[in-house]
Amino acid sequence: xxxxxxxxxFRPDIEQLSAYVRALRxxxxxxxxxxxxxxxxxxxxxxxxxxxxxxNVVAHRRGKGRAITQGxxxxxxxxxxxADADGSTTPGSLERIIEPVxxxxxxxxVGSRRHPDAKVRGHQTFGRRRLGDVFAWLAxxxxxxxLYDYQCGAKALARDTWKSVREQLREPGFAxxxxxxxxxxxxxxxxxxxxxxxxxxPGSTVAPVRDGVQMxxxxxxxxxxxxxxxxxxxxxxxxxxxxxxxxxVDQAGTEESWTWV
Length: 261
Known about the structure:
With 261 residues, the chain is α/β, with parallel strands linked by helices.
């Protein structure tokens, strides 16, 4: 089965990203890698053109969710996956995340840093860990998928699974992950959780307070949209009374961009 990987990258460390892309290609070949760069710094474009993958550079920040969505839309592979640009998820772990989908054992495969068998090197601050604990607990109450970790930056899904939810995805930022999981679960698809080898990287673009509030809001909204997809009467009535933002796929192609192959 053909494989495509999207790497969302906000102002990436060029050397770090280049090394990670090459490691992924060596480990997972053959693979198509789509790098979605937001808010490139001066000379970023020139520095990325020699990477052994297609690079798409967009002039302003779209948010992680929109970047991954548009990256998936640009791919034409049987399996689509994404991994954060800082390389926190090792190539071997990403391969293990992809395997259940390739083997037909799952429709969505979710990497997990919180799984008992996960190996985590380097640890987040106490505040960020507690925020993550609270978010994971709330997600288990509101989403049909009972997982240890909903926000790990590595996931894979089958092309037909992507097609079944792509038109319902509306969260442009960090809450996109939980919306994806909620919608896949509401569609009755199989979700697998895979423990990863993870190394926390410095310079995270996540602001604990600001993005934490947005993720909690996104969780509530994701729960609502999943209930709408599942056909829950109350949530469908609420959806009919509210003005919804357009799906991300309906926004694709509106930004100025450049592509090299």
